[in-house]
Design a protein that fits this description.
alpha/beta; 9-stranded mixed sheet; 9 helices; about 40% helix; elongated
Length: about 325
């Protein structure tokens, strides 16, 4: 392969910008608390109604929907060009999607994925997990959509504690948390509906980009916009932008530190000069990851020269000279 054809996939910190990324969210909570209505507050959503429950949402909050009976139909409908008109795909519920996936796995390879009694096999569960990840990645990265999974929860006893777990068959209920950016548990606190974005001993949750703790969901009255998640996403994007700006303020200091540090490390030729450079690096103003990076570059340099640290003497020492070889015999 010619050098011109080689493409380097390294992205430097100063080149990273996540402000336009899409979000993947898990909304969990007991039935009837308003999870679907909350999900529909995301930017320009379309609902994949696997539970056939859109009719229970107030008419004023309903949005476009996809209704399917098989996983293959879900995949086909999501390939429609009309999907380009929407920013967010809601899977309602994630537990039903896993059930759909189990039926799909058995149909796809009944010999391997089905037991003799007709139930899904362990290999079938493996196929479900793999397809769940592939499906989520396709929605978020290929189709470039926000993805929201709605899950019912069920109570499980763990000693004296009662924990809320996703109502979902198999190990997929643990897998679903891995690719999500935000995960919240929806509950009633007094007469108010509240979202928890920080994990507790009673439920699992996940926060990032400044979204954490408890958030109260306002009561929607006639004429109120159902836009809670839209505003939450805007808040997260604003936080990402602020993080980027804070990074850029330190970027020039980082570049100066790296340039000065590299030039100093190049001058190392002996244990004495290595000690001198260590003292220089300690005084050098550092920024971002420059300190750790320069430490690694320094170690590589002294290793190349055979310079080592003597713990007893507490100083760098030059490599021992090799014993001269015996006088060679004349040819």
């Amino acid at each position: 392969m010619d050098k011109e054809e080689i493409q380097v996939a390294i992205v430097l910190p100063n080149q990273m910008d996540f402000s336009n990324n899409k979000f993947s969210v898990v909304i969990s909570g007991p039935p009837g608390i308003g999870k679907t209505t909350l999900a529909l507050s995301a930017p320009n959503p379309i609902l994949v109604d696997l539970d056939k429950g859109l009719g229970r949402v107030e008419a004023r909050h309903r949005r476009a929907a996809i209704v399917c009976d098989k996983y293959e139909e879900v995949v086909k409908d999501l390939e429609s060009p009309e999907l380009g008109n929407y920013e967010t795909i809601i899977i309602d519920t994630g537990g039903s999607l896993v059930t759909y996936l189990q039926d799909w796995a058995i149909r796809d390879n009944p010999t391997v994925n089905r037991q003799k009694n007709g139930a899904i096999s362990l290999k079938g569960f493996g196929a479900v997990k793999s397809e769940f990840v592939r499906f989520t990645d396709r929605l978020k990265y290929t189709l470039d959509k926000n993805v929201i999974y709605v899950f019912h929860t069920t109570e499980e006893k763990d000693g004296d504690a009662t924990r809320q777990r996703l109502l979902c068959d198999g190990a997929a209920r643990n897998l679903v948390w891995q690719p999500c950016d935000l995960g919240c548990f929806m509950q009633m606190v007094g007469d108010k509906r509240v979202l928890g974005f920080s994990p507790t001993e009673n439920y699992f949750a996940k926060g990032c980009h400044g979204i954490s703790g408890l958030r109260e969901i306002p009561t929607l009255r006639d004429g109120d916009a159902n836009d809670f998640l839209t505003r939450l996403f805007d808040e997260a994007k604003a936080n990402i932008k602020a993080e980027n700006e804070a990074f850029r303020a330190q970027e020039s200091a980082y570049q100066e530190a790296m340039e000065a540090g590299r030039e100093a490390i190049k001058t190392i030729s002996s244990a004495e000069s290595a000690a001198h450079v260590v003292a220089l690096l300690r005084e050098l103003p550092q920024a971002l990851t420059s300190k750790s990076e320069l430490r690694s570059i320094f170690k590589l340099r002294i290793n190349e020269l055979g310079i080592s640290w003597d713990r007893e003497l507490k100083q760098y020492v030059d490599p021992k000279p090799q014993e001269s070889a015996a006088n060679p015999q004349p040819a």
